[in-house]
Specification:
Elements (H helix, E strand, L loop, with lengths): L3 H32 L1 H14 L10 H7 L1 H4 L14 H6 L10 H12 L55 H9 L5 H12 L5 H41 L4 H10 L1 H17 L33 H5 L7 H4 L4 H9 L6 H13 L28 H20 L2 H30 L1
Helix pairs in contact: 1-9, 1-10, 1-11, 1-15, 1-16, 1-17, 2-9, 6-9, 7-8, 8-9, 9-16, 14-15
Length: about 425
């Protein structure tokens, strides 16, 4: 049976992992924004939908799709000027392509590329698109020109076969089959989507939107896998940088009751302050998977209040007057305009960790295991000794961080509930033994 000491140690360790995970998640977001990898993933996903096997910069339907007015308005410029085709340039200068394309925009742009409403001449058009004079034809009679396709209107007419010339989708289906720019893969996908809509143009657009949404789920999985690897690497880097040895932390919390109690109190305050926050990740207000790659489950839970606001009030302190490199000063600087930015959340987590007086860091004066070795690899306290003392603890910390902030946020709340149920029972037992 767990006692409160074990629960308190577990609560403290979970809270430390949560703060470190928030730091790594924010750092991962900063890297993603700097490299604009979501835009690269989105372009790759659209290429796999429309022209699988093609490369960035190829003269294909993907280029025309991005240069369409509806999509081009999201980023400006031209596809060929976006640096997407240059691996080195897009990593140094970032691609100009958007990280977010709504599914409705994708469907409307693609349908307009396949069958432009103003450029497709009706049957019987002469040279230059001129139509020969003809006697008026009753509506529904043979040879009647079908009305222009309006992609925005949900027609209420009874379903008609898509091969019927009076069906507003007939010309769209025919254009898909005869379009020389579409790959056979795209034709094979679009044709059944159009056929399933009957005579409902809006339904055809919705089918294409769902097709796009399902593809974006796969794009999201690319982001998730990359984010997990990135956060694992960042977790190991952070574990070494702040000397967060899980084994040393557990030993210290087990023997240091005041530190353990203060950490538990801080964890409970944090959980209360963010009780209304959803543990599901939504970093940097990213769109749903239907619009762009969704964030990783190892991203920040985005609580309503930042850790720094929980641990130390967000009031501006005179810390910047003394030390401009202090965590409080950097927090004030990064969070003065946007408290939801990755930079602000990174500094908020760092400030919260600094305020807890945890047994981490390299600033100890009496413990050689917590003294920065500098460039010394050998000798007492050199890097070889530090690796020998901390390697397993660092690896445990990195693996724990890779599980993600939402995981530790949920676990923290569960342990708080368990502790609140166990502690009153233990107190009643102690009172009974005194009598």
């Amino acid at each position: 049976m767990f006692n409160t000491t074990i629960l308190d140690v577990a609560l403290g360790v979970i809270f430390i992992y949560l703060l470190l995970s928030l730091m790594c998640s924010a750092a991962n977001e900063m890297i993603e924004l700097a490299l604009k990898k979501r835009a690269v993933d989105l372009e790759r996903g659209i290429r796999e939908l429309l022209a699988p096997g093609s490369k960035s910069g190829a003269d294909d339907v993907v280029k025309k799709f991005y240069n369409h007015a509806l999509v081009n308005s999201l980023f400006g410029g031209k596809y060929e000027e976006s640096r997407i085709e240059h691996l080195i340039r897009r990593k140094i200068m970032r691609t100009a392509l958007p990280s977010y394309i709504p599914s409705r925009t994708f469907a409307l742009a693609l349908m307009d590329l396949v069958l432009p409403g103003v450029t497709v001449p009706p049957a019987g058009a002469g040279p230059g698109g001129a139509t020969a004079p003809a006697t008026p034809t009753p509506s529904g009679a043979a040879g009647a020109t079908p009305p222009p396709v309006n992609f925005e209107v949900n027609l209420a007419a009874p379903p008609l076969p898509t091969t019927d010339p009076h069906n507003p989708l007939a010309r769209l289906r025919s254009a898909v089959g005869t379009n020389s720019e579409l790959t056979q893969h795209a034709k094979n996908a679009l044709t059944p989507l159009i056929d399933a809509a009957g005579s409902d143009v809006a339904k055809a657009r919705e089918n294409i939107e769902r097709w796009y949404d399902s593809a974006m789920d796969r794009v999201s999985s690319w982001y998730k896998r990359r984010a997990q690897v990135t956060i694992l690497i960042l977790g190991l880097f952070v574990a070494v940088a702040v000397n967060a040895d899980s084994i040393k932390i557990v030993k210290r919390l087990w023997t240091d009751r005041p530190l353990r109690e203060s950490l538990v109190a801080a964890a409970q305050d944090y959980a209360k302050a963010n009780a209304s926050a959803s543990p599901s990740p939504s970093p940097s207000s990213s769109p749903s998977p239907s619009s762009s790659p969704s964030p990783s489950p190892s991203a920040s839970p985005r609580p309503s209040n930042s850790p720094a606001e929980t641990q130390a009030s967000a009031t501006t302190s005179p810390a910047c007057e003394k030390d401009k490199n202090s965590p409080q000063c950097k927090y004030d600087e990064k969070c003065s305009q946007d408290k939801d930015s990755p930079e602000c959340r990174y500094q908020a987590s760092l400030l919260a960790i600094e305020s807890l007086s945890l047994p981490i860091g390299w600033d100890s004066t009496d413990d050689v295991e917590r003294q920065w070795p500098g460039w010394r690899f050998r000798g007492e306290g050199g890097w070889w000794d530090q690796i020998y003392w901390h390697l397993f603890g660092w690896l445990l910390t990195a693996l724990a961080i890779s599980l993600g902030a939402p995981f530790w946020f949920d676990l923290l709340n569960k342990f708080i509930v368990i502790r609140s149920a166990v502690k009153p029972h233990e107190k009643s037992q102690e009172e009974g033994s005194k009598d």
